[in-house]
Amino acid sequence: MNAKTEMMDRQPEINTQRDVYQVDALSANNNAPAMIDRRPAAKKPPKKKRKCMDYVRKTIPSIDWLFLNYRWSEDFAEDTMAGIAVAVLNIPQGMAYSILGNVEPTVGLYMAVFPVLVYSLLGTSRHISLGVLSVLCLMTGKVVTMYANDGTGADAGTGYTAIQVATAVTMVAGLVQLLMYVFRLGLLCTVLSETLVKGFTASVAVIVLTSQLKELLGVDVARRVGMMQVPHTFYDFADRFHTINWMTTAVSVTTIAVLLVYNKYLKERINSKLCMPLPIELIVTIVATVLFQVTSIAQDYDMVQMGEIKSGLPAFEVPPVKLFSAVFMDACVIALVGYSITMSLALLVSEKLKYPLDTNQELLAQGLGNVVGSFFSCLPSGASPSRSASQQTVGGKTQMASIVSAGIIVVVLLWIGVVFEPLPRCVLSSIIVVALKGLLLQVLDFPEIWRKSKTDGAVWIVTYSTVIVLDIDTGLLVGVVLSLLFVFVKGVLNEVHVLGRLPDTDLYVRLDLYGDAAEVPDVKIVRYAGSLNVINRYMFKRKLIEVTRAGCDDASMTMTVTVVDGKHSTGGRRTQCVVLDMAALQYADSAGVKMLSESIESLVSDGFDVYLAAVPDSSLEYIRCNNDVKSVRFFPTVHDAVVFRQCSNKKIHDSMYDSQPTKTPNGL
Description:
The structure is a single chain. The strands form three sheets. This protein has a six-stranded mixed sheet. A two-stranded antiparallel ribbon has the order 1-2. The longest helix has 30 residues, at 324-353. The protein is 57% helix and 7% strand. The two termini are 66 Å apart. Strand 9 (608-613), helix 27 and strand 10 form a beta-alpha-beta unit. It is α/β, with parallel strands linked by helices. The chain crosses the membrane at residues 81-100, 106-123, 130-148, 160-183, 195-213, 244-262, 274-294, 323-349, 400-420, 426-446, 458-489. This is STAS domain-containing protein.
């Protein structure tokens, strides 16, 4: 028992005995051609030609999961429950977020049908719920405010209605996404990093909150758009505060309080006892509708109500083509933001549930969904975190849940939608504000982001502040530029560190981080980390010279004079060695390799032997072919280079003493 315990407590060891290798010898001993003799690899055998049906099934994933392999007996019941849960969320959210887009409340319900059906047939995510998204509705609403005049005023003959402008934005955004799909630009969403998206959405939440103050308080102010939108809006509220509607304010405060109390204290307790989440937003909407239907409170206190709600499905209408050029830039930003947010959510769910996604196929699904939706009075659509989470937690297995949800919304549009006409708009604005609580509180995460990474923190705070102070588009552009600038700077920065050896190991670590590490006598080990290119080549040379010259004075280079039998051995300079650990080399271009050759040549001329160790295979052949210094040796590891150097020094030392004349004793 004690022996077994001792074996378990003993630190694992690595014991290896092998020859010291140089790169060419390593290749020869393992039946691999030397780098300089390698020829291009033989062409791979041609791939098996794919049939036309294979492309069709890849382009329309629903052929597999819905028409061929759907498990009706196992999954349909759960998908139906998930679809019902998503539909009851879509009703209040669709009408509420339509306010952000400056369009009729039924537009949000249309978005829960047409883009959703297209995505369910073409998308690869099984759980995201497409439809209204506050960020996209707000960005579209800004464009609507700029170009819509409802055919009145001086431009009555050429004016555009709000829905015409909105559908033009939707069409262009969809076409941009389809163009990205054609050119396989699915990875373009990585331009918007997670930190950037968090800062952007948190700042947009502030703008949404500001835009809803008019509805929440009943203050008579015009909606601001463009630069300095938020500061100007707060100034307008301060100037027009005397017009506040106190009944509207009371209803807003009551609605917000009910939703917050439920979410904080009752939600988990009640939902744990139900088969699906309690649709508190829909319940509040129905109660408010009934209350203001049977009473005259809204009329007595001059509250703004929803008004006429059209019943039925929208008519097919082509968006005005003449508007495409005017809204193009805004639509491009909306397309990129919508795709990035949707993909981030889809990737999060797919990684959690372990199924693959096709980023380019997602572009096709979302782009075609927007194009189709633009013919049916839809705004640009995106995935909602709350609805997607509900679809997944209730037990939805496939996009059949979205199809069920769309069917329920169609029923609402045909027969039920008109019952919400007495509903005060402040109730929907209250639902929006409560839904934004998580985004608004993201500002509290900034200290943690800053502590972990100063660059991420800078991207977050700059994006957040510029979006709020300036404008959505300007702030997003500034955030993207700053993020890419940091990536560029990090790409050209390099690090040069002196390494030492940990006692009784073959591990070589940074001397400034490990106190037990010590430099190997007569060997300067230098680690280079980063790329080596035309931009940072002079920085590389300067740092390399600094660390190799440090501590290498003439005294350390002078050979000791040895006296043997009254004769002096030949004095001279002792040659030191520089080992360059290139394991962290990311990339080297021709200018960088040329500077490497010049630096090596300078070290050799100063009396150093130079060894290159652990050069990545992707750069090794390129460096060897473009390196003019032929005396450089290449080693697979730093330890190989160090041992080789120590053995060489020992041989030189032994041969020096063996070459001295030996005096024979008298009498022999």
